[in-house]
Design goal:
218 residues, 21-stranded mixed sheet, 0% helix, mainly beta
Length: 218
């Protein structure tokens, strides 16, 4: 157990290949912390660490602030609640994970994610969730350029999609959206329900997804 401690920026590559770790109320400011670790609990920590948490499993985070690029690459069975994430290319190639009440700002977050659920969270940045499979966003607020493209089995449940353009290109999607959307481009299949849409772009003959709003289809 590590409590009320300070791992400085000189504490490079802390705690690799470790099991059964509990870290609370600690500053972790060294790069590449917690690689290939199993059964980890991190609570109320301030983390500044590029390449944090690679190849981790059974990893729980709560009440943390995490800044760093390439966070949690190839990790699985991760749960995060009330965590603020900042950095580029984060949360990629993850599977079987749940994020709840999180604030996520990133470029290319959740690329190639599989069986990941995000609930009651805010997601900002470009190119969210590309190439994911079974990504579910439940009551989330999405602000992204070209979000959620090339996805399989994508599901949105009562989400806000604001200040977002060229959404859902070439994606298999089942979505209920509660805000007007700026533009949707070539959604591949499924149904998108929403109150209003500024622009629907169909330039690909394979784009067959149904757009449903105000009782009409497009």
């Amino acid at each position: 157990m590590i409590r009320k401690s300070d791992i400085t920026e000189n504490g490079r590559a802390a705690l690799w290949y470790s099991d059964h770790i509990e870290i609370t109320d600690t500053k972790m400011h060294g790069i590449k912390a917690l690689r290939e670790c199993h059964d980890v609990s991190v609570r109320n920590c301030d983390i500044i660490s590029n390449e944090f948490g690679w190849f981790a499993s059974d990893f729980a985070m709560e009440g943390c602030k995490l800044a760093g690029d390439y966070t949690m690459l190839h990790s699985h069975n991760v749960s995060a609640r009330n965590v603020t994430f900042r950095g580029k290319y984060i949360l990629q190639y993850m599977h079987d994970c749940v994020f709840e009440a999180c604030d996520i700002t990133s470029r290319d977050a959740f690329w190639h994610a599989q069986n990941v659920t995000v609930k009651n969270s805010v997601l900002r940045g470009e190119f969210l969730g590309w190439y994911s499979n079974h990504l579910t966003l439940d009551h989330c607020r999405i602000l992204s350029s070209q979000p959620l493209c090339y996805c399989k089995n994508l599901k949105l449940v009562d989400c806000e999609v604001v200040d977002s353009d060229l959404c859902f290109e070439n994606s298999e999607i089942d979505a209920t959206i509660v805000t007007s959307v700026d533009s949707i481009k070539n959604p591949l299949s499924g149904t998108i329900r929403l109150p209003d849409l500024d622009e629907l772009i169909r330039t690909d003959p394979r784009s067959k997804a149904k757009i449903v709003f105000d009782g009409a289809n497009a």
